[in-house]
Amino acid sequence: MNEPRLSAIPAQVPTHSRDRLGRPLRDLRISVTDRCNFRCVYCMPKEVFGKDYQFLERKELLTFEEITRLARIFRELGIEKIRLTGGEPLVRRNLEQLIAMLAAIPGLDLTLTTNGSLLKQKARALKEAGLKRVTVSLDSLDDEVFMRMNDVDFPATRVLDGIEAAAAAGLAPIKINMVVKRGLNEHSILPMARFFRKQGHILRFIEYMDVGHTNGWRMDDVVTAREIIAMIDAETPLEPADANYRGEVAERWRYKDGSGEIGVIASVTQAFCRDCTRARLSTEGKLYTCLFATNGHDLRVLLRNGAPDREIHDAITAIWDRRSDRYSEIRTAQTAKLQKIEMSYIGG
Ligand code: SAM
Ligand code: SF4
Ligand code: SF4
Known about the structure:
Blueprint: E1 27-31, H1 64-76, E2 81-85, H2 95-103, E3 109-114, H3 119-129, E4 133-137, H4 143-150, H5 156-169, E5 175-180, H6 189-199, E6 202-207, H7 225-235, E7 238-240, E8 251-255, E9 261-265, E10 278-281, E11 286-288, E12 297-298, H8 300-304, H9 309-321, H10 343-346
Parallel strand pairs: 1-2, 1-10, 2-3, 3-4, 4-5, 5-6, 6-9
Antiparallel strand pairs: 7-8, 8-9, 10-11, 11-12
Helix pairs in contact: 1-2, 1-9, 2-3, 3-5
The structure holds S-adenosylmethionine and iron/sulfur cluster (2 copies).
């Protein structure tokens, strides 16, 4: 198809639009698959995501070309960073090809969040394709606890092998995400902090969130960022560190002895909506302006109906201009029960 490239868009068109709360569009998370080889109890509980669960069909998924075309348009709109996610992004076949296509877009910071299960085999190819760094999710070093959380008997040692392979391939700095759920893995907080301080990777603790509507979230299950910081500080004193940039999701803390840093993502107890510059693109091409959205905007229909870049560009701008999401700031027990989009579909 012969369509105008973005360079053809007249210069007077405002590209860095701001939403109703004055927030620019800076980051895009792209979910490349709704499938996963884990069944983490807080994300894809087996009772819901069982044998009969209907995942998207192949033809419904955006192709690599479609994803790349949208990524270019988003880049024109001011996006600086793209994070690939899922589901488990590394289960999407030939993901390296997509990485190479996205890495060719100038000025884009490209990264990926993975459960680490396939990283040992894939780290080198991902690096060679142009990926800069990775975030690996790991909720405990204790196999028994970790297996109870991933619910597919996957041992922590194999994720650690993946992390080692990523470091060896130069996918650095590596960040480790640990979701903490009360009664499941709060005893793993200190062993994880000790281990990754030695390894030199940045461990970030994530408050358990009420994403989707299948994980049976209750506020009582949230181990708060304050509790986590207090626990670690009592063993190895910490001091607050400045954010790397405005809108950084993780609050940074440094070990006073200079041995490294950790982060806490307090999306439940200290909402950071006012600086939220993130949009999310689902596997089938729906654009969501909040992790807790109930509806997305269909961009695939524009792509597949032959819309020129210009029209897609304007559609995204119009969606962002109307945005007023601030779910975490107004969360209540009632909003937690809303029929929200699942995290495994929209990407974390
Ligand atoms: N499968 C990949 C992984 O696990 O890293 C990428 C997708 S996953 C949905 C992205 C991130 O969301 C992971 O770090 C995961 O731990 C986090 N996550 C999933 N469900 C969550 C919940 N209910 N509360 C907080 N974080 C959650
Ligand atoms: Fe899969 Fe990641 Fe969700 Fe766990 S958190 S079930 S690894 S998508
Ligand atoms: Fe952004 Fe929505 Fe999360 Fe607030 S609740 S930080 S608006 S994604």
